[in-house]
Amino acid sequence: MPHASLADTQLDRLQEILARHDGLEGPLLPILHAIQTEFGYIPAACIPVIADHLNIGRAEVHGVVSFYHDFRDAPAGRHVVKICRAEACQAVGAKALAEIALAKLGLEWHGTTPNGAVTIKPVYCLGLCACGPAAMVDDKVVGRVDAAKLNRILTEAGA
Amino acid sequence: MRDFILPNDRDMGTPASKSDTMVTLTVDGFEVTVPAGTSVMRASNEAGIAIPKLCATDSIEAFGSCRLCMVEIEGRRGTPASCTTPVSEGMVVQTQSTKLKKLRRGVMELYISDHPLDCLTCAANGDCELQDMAGAVGLRDVRYDAKANHFEPRNTSGEVNPDYIPKDDSNPYFTYDPAKCIACSRCVRACEEVQGTFALTIEGRGWDSRVSAGMAGDDFLSSDCVSCGACVQACPTATLQEKSVIELGTPERSVLTTCAYCGVGCTFKAELQGDELVRMVPYRHGKANRGHSCVKGRFAYGYAHHRDRILNPMIRDSIDQPWREVGWDEALNFAANRLRGLQQKHGRESIGVITSSRCTNEETYLVQKLTRAVFGNNNTDTCARVCHSPTGYGLGQTFGTSAGTQDFDSIEQADVVVVIGANPTDAHPVFGSRLKKRLRAGAKLIVVDPRRTDLVKSNHIRAAHHLALRPGTNVAVVTAMAHVIVTEGLMKEDFIRSRCDWDEFQDYAAFVTDPRHSPETTEALTGVPAEDLRQAARLYATGGNGAIYYGLGVTEHSQGSTTVIGIANLAMLTGNIGREGVGVNPLRGQNNVQGSCDMGSFPHELPGYRHVKLPEVRAIFEDAWGVKIDPEPGLRIPNMLDAAVEGTFKGLYCQGEDILQSDPDTKHVAAGLAAMECVIVHDLFLNETANYAHVFLPGSTFLEKDGTFTNAERRINRVRKVMAPKNGYADWEVTQLLANAMGAEWHYTHPAQIMAEIAATTPSFANVTYDLIDEKGSIQWPCNDAHPEGTATMHVDGFVRGKGRFIVTEYVATDERTGPRFPLLLTTGRILSQYNVGAQTRRTENVIWHDQDLLEIHPHDAEVRGVKDGDWIKLASRSGETTLRAQITDRVSPGVVYTTFHHPDTQANVITTDYSDWATNCPEYKVTAVQVSMSNGPSEWQEDYAEQAKRARRIQPAAE
């Protein structure tokens, strides 16, 4: 198999996560969340190990991981900024705001700044339609984002 | 793929419902009655009305994603998908309306907007469901000029299209072209539901949804894919396409026939252009395979036109000379004169035959008739000697007949499946898939095998118990299971009282109750933890329908027959015999092992398992053949070889079998063959045995002749000629020519006449005719006046022998023991991509999966010997030594090593010993004490053998 292998220490941490979820019904998503929390992303080399442990195909694990945009296949920046691109926010200027953000960072969607500070991602509705344009900085939602607020957010994040 | 050739072979869209309750509905004004649970789509198809569809096919469950099959149903809102809507009583369905047409065109328009319009140059042109559906819905215009698409490598300004994925042609037999994919998931679902491998997935979502084999970085070859072809079969477009169709074009005719690989006996459509085979496609109404296939039957037919195939007869005076190509007459006269000369000089008994389990029933029947009616002796044996002869003996003694008790459909009713010494996912893959499907539906599995086979643990499959016994201790394990069942009172007493001999049961019960048979006592011997064995025995006895499937891991032992008897005892103890979902089922190795045994290939039995010493049986054949039949049983294969070495057995006609490679103790086989004065090999290739032959008669493939094969379910399947024999004659014609050259005056002009003779002389085949097989598709024997349409399940109201017979199964350890010089136990087996001695599969692209035999060794055993993965190692036993590469794996237990026997340059059988089953002489392939050490290269035997083989294969060009 042309897959990279995990370092022994990573493998131990992965095995510990897998053991912690033994006996759980529908364990794959909780395991993936735990791995992302532990490693910051889902290392590809984890996939065959998870598949073997759950007795499912590695294709199936890959199918699930790739279905959810929140699961990353590479480490993200220290802060993740998500800008809402759903209809309500677009109606109040989210599109222009997003363009400003990308231009300022010099990135495409899902990109990370060279200094590793910020990853920028699109998101489709944060449930904050009354206060659009909305964004999310790490775990915190922010409403009524304008260019100035966005600038402040990105500067604070170290971009 | 579209089914465009045979009538009654339409894709019904969704699987059939098995309900007994019938429901009547109206489709477009036509009344139709179908089982409850049937989809509206299938019901409509039953009424002869096809509903447009893309994501549905009848091999997999309905999915409801393409939205092309929508219909209108009176009293319901909207336009439900007909594939996911079950029928109900009185339902009124409309499949066509202005609204439906408009919706369907809209759906197709969207599909086509992201599909290349290169139909004329597409490999699936004329065989594409997307194309058909575009026609069916009347698509005339595509309004969307989609800028983004998945099929153009570059856009009009020459920029690379990031959504374009190039073709994956890593698999030798089919390609995956993502540009043509409509993401219907049929391939993914077929891989999961039909094959049970779970190698495919849909990665991403929405616009990014793509079929992916394995994970990121995998291609089809590196993924879990086993190349069964189920995905190719399910694909509605050219996305998954056979390379042969890409190369040759779509076939124009189709012939139903039977696969010539393993004992499952899958029905295939051979699809051709003229006499050129384009592809083999599994037939959905095939009763053994139900539309499924494996890599061998589906793809590995290339040997039929391999350049190694010999098409002209050849002779030579002695084996140190090169072969001389001659005409048929010269070769047959040469052979006939030699054989007659040997009989004159050394006696009537000095020559014999070996029948082939790869040839048809009719051909096998003629070969044994040759020795009995023309040679005048009973010196006939067959390769079943080295595989399932203990099955014949064991089941014959206990039940009264030598055959599996069930059909393969029976697995769908089983609750507990016991697999002993068999590896169906490799050796009987289509049955393996059907078994795995049942296991995923909840049946429990017990595996008794020294090796952790894929059934023990693989995607979505986990055995409840894996009894990893020490090779050679089957009898002890089976008897210990009986001990648990009897001492814990789990047997079905009413079944035993009514169906079996009660007195014999008493003796047997007393025997197994003895504490020396308890799992706790036998644990030291077998290595199987007592508690595990107890739980497994309880599960089998009390878990509902218990079905036992076993293979050569049971029979190829010095106590093979005893284990078969032990298995029969277990089934009788628990009442697991005589209905669907239970039974005792030998998984036959070769396509026609069952048939070759049925046809009287054994030296002591005339066709139908009737002993030659019985005058009333001989009389039947003496009348039919007009000759006297020798009442003395003839020689078995090992006896023939022993007699040859002693100088009393001088001539052999060996059809379609390579005893030098497949039989144990290769050096002894070679010595026996070398001592004979006329060895006639009748085969496709110059096989290993032919190195010692004086006459080579070219054989025909299963594609080139008519006949029948009988599979492991006793199912007689038709083999149909799809092309003329490249060598000039079908094998039955060659045998007839040889017989006539010896003065026999046989006049068969078609195998149907041979079958008529079989039916006239053999009670279990009494009503079998080609017409009846054509009408029914296939027939399971016995087929006679009592069972005019054949018999799916045997021993339903009583055993064939009357009362079932319990026989005591005393464990006697094999004489082959480990010791300081040979501390490891070698066991042998096969692998998915190769078949038997590999003569066929080694001459196909299947070698990409298995290009050499490897020795599986446990990490502990490897470490103490300094062996690393991939090292050249020497494998030695008391019989001989060979070299091969090591594969380090914990599939085998410490102390056990495992290899396959597919490659002649490895010659695993140089290692195996001449120990054999006490009752039938079936060789003990599965247990050999060996030592493993590091090596630099081929052993002396391998070098000598290679040199001899090279010399023996020289062919002198024909004189101008």
Tell me the strand percentage band of chain A.
5-15%
Radius of gyration of chain B: 29 Å
What is the terminal-to-terminal distance of chain B? 50 Å
Q: Report mean pLDDT of chain B, rounded to a whole number.
A: 93
CATH architecture of the largest domain in chain B: 3-Layer(aba) Sandwich
How many helices of chain B does DSSP assign? 29
Question: Could you give a short account of the major beta sheet of chain A?
Answer: 4 strands, mixed
Structural class of chain A: alpha+beta
Total of domains of chain A? 2
Helical proportion of chain A?
Answer: 40-55%
Mean pLDDT of chain A equals 91
CATH topology (fold) name of the largest domain in chain A: Glutaredoxin
Work out the count of structural domains of chain B.
5
Radius of gyration of chain A: 18 Å
Structural class computed from helices and strand pairing of chain B: alpha/beta
Overall 3D form of chain A: elongated
Return residue spans of chain A where pLDDT drops below 50 for at least 5 consecutive residues: none
Can you identify the CATH class of the largest domain in chain B? Alpha Beta
Number of strands of chain B: 37
Regarding quaternary structure, what we see is heterodimer
**What is the CATH top level name of the largest domain in chain A?**
Alpha Beta
Domain 4Fe-4S His(Cys)3-ligated-type (chain B): 99-138
Enzyme class (chain B): oxidoreductase
GO biological process, one term (chain B): respiratory electron transport chain
Domain 4Fe-4S Mo/W bis-MGD-type (chain B): 252-308
